[in-house]
Each structure stands twice: as structure tokens, then as C-alpha cells.
């Protein structure tokens, strides 16, 4: 999928709309989700124009990959969630019900999160 720079996270990166920033480095920005689903719900996004985790993995430079991965650890330290634990996930495309087409990790924490996903009746 072609990257569309009118998505909401691109606007946050440009500073066109505000965010509740938790952490930033040269390659990544982390901010609180506007509609948190757990007591702690932070989104970590790369600064580059990637739609999905797969695209990021395939196309990002080594520096971007490293900077992004380091940001995840820094966010966990900043939030104090490393010891109690968390869940980190990324929704991809249609089947993953991805809403914002700029790659992001959800960092969910602050309570016991139960099993990974709900079984789906088909
Ligand atoms: P997705 O379904 O794409 O994995 O998740 C998108 C997430 O972005 C949702 O959890 C939603 O609440 C969050 N979100 C959507 N718009 C905004 C916004 O303007 N600001 C912030 N901080 N989060 C947003």
C-alpha cells in the first residue's frame, strides 16, 4: 500500500496536531493513545513513512530499525512497566483491523491483560 502523508500520525509527526509525548529519538516518537484500552496505552511510531510493520522491516535502514527498537525499551523504562509486564502488538491491514495507516506498536500495560486474543467464532 502506498503511504498517504495525510494520516493522523503523519500530522502528529509534522506537529500539525498535538500529542501527549512520552519519548522521542531521531527515529521514533511515542505518545499516549487518545482512547486508551488499558491503564497504560502508548503508541510507538517510526518517523519514516511506513504503512506496516512488514513494510518497515523490509524497507527501513538499519539505523531506523535500531532507533525504533531502542525506543521501545526506552518507553518501557520511562513508563516503569518493564518489571510488571506489558503487551506489545501491531495491527496490520484489513484482517488486523489497522485503522491508522502509519506503522505503530501498541504498548499496553498497567493491569493483567488476560490471554493474548479472544477466540473468534467462525
Ligand atoms: P490501529 O487500529 O490502527 O492499530 O490503532 C490506531 C490507534 O490510534 C487507536 O488505538 C486510536 O485510539 C489511536 N488514535 C487515533 N487517532 C489518534 C490521535 O489523534 N491521537 C492519538 N494519540 N491516538 C490516536
The CATH architecture would be 2-Layer Sandwich
N/C terminus separation: 28 Å
| Fraction of residues in H or I helices | 25-40%
What do the pLDDT scores average to? Answer: 96
Q: Main sheet: which strands, in order across?
A: 1-2-3-5-4
Instruction: Let me know the CATH homologous superfamily.
Output: HIT-like
Using only C-alpha atoms, the radius of gyration works out to: 14 Å
Secondary-structure element pattern, one letter each: HEEEHHEE
Report low-confidence residues grouped into runs of 5 or more: none
Tell me the count of domains.
1
Category from helices, strands and their pairing: alpha+beta
Q: Which CATH top level class fits? A: Alpha Beta
Shape: globular
Largest sheet: 5 strands, antiparallel
Distinct compounds present: guanosine-5'-monophosphate
Structure commentary:
The chain is α+β, with helices and mostly antiparallel strands and 122 residues long. The protein has one domain (8-109): HIT-like (HIT family, subunit A). It has helices spanning 8-14, 53-59, 62-79; strands at 21-24, 28-32, 40-46, 87-89, 105-109. Strands 1-2-3-5-4 form a five-stranded antiparallel sheet. The structure holds guanosine-5'-monophosphate (5GP). Guanosine-5'-monophosphate is lined by residues 8, 19, 31, 33-35, 43, 91, 97-100.
Amino acid at each position: 500500500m502506498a503511504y498517504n502523508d495525510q494520516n493522523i500520525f503523519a500530522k502528529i509527526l509534522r506537529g500539525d496536531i498535538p500529542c501527549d509525548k512520552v519519548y522521542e529519538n531521531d527515529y521514533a516518537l511515542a505518545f499516549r493513545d487518545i482512547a486508551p484500552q488499558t491503564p497504560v496505552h502508548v503508541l510507538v511510531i517510526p518517523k519514516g513513512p511506513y504503512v506496516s510493520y512488514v513494510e518497515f522491516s523490509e524497507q527501513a535502514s538499519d539505523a531506523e530499525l535500531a532507533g525504533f527498537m531502542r525506543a521501545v525499551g526506552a518507553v518501557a523504562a520511562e513508563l516503569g512497566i518493564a518489571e510488571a509486564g506489558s503487551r506489545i502488538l501491531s495491527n496490520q491491514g484489513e484482517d488486523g483491523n489497522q485503522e491508522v495507516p502509519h506503522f505503530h506498536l501498541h504498548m499496553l500495560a498497567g493491569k493483567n491483560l488476560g490471554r493474548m486474543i479472544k477466540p473468534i467464532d467462525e
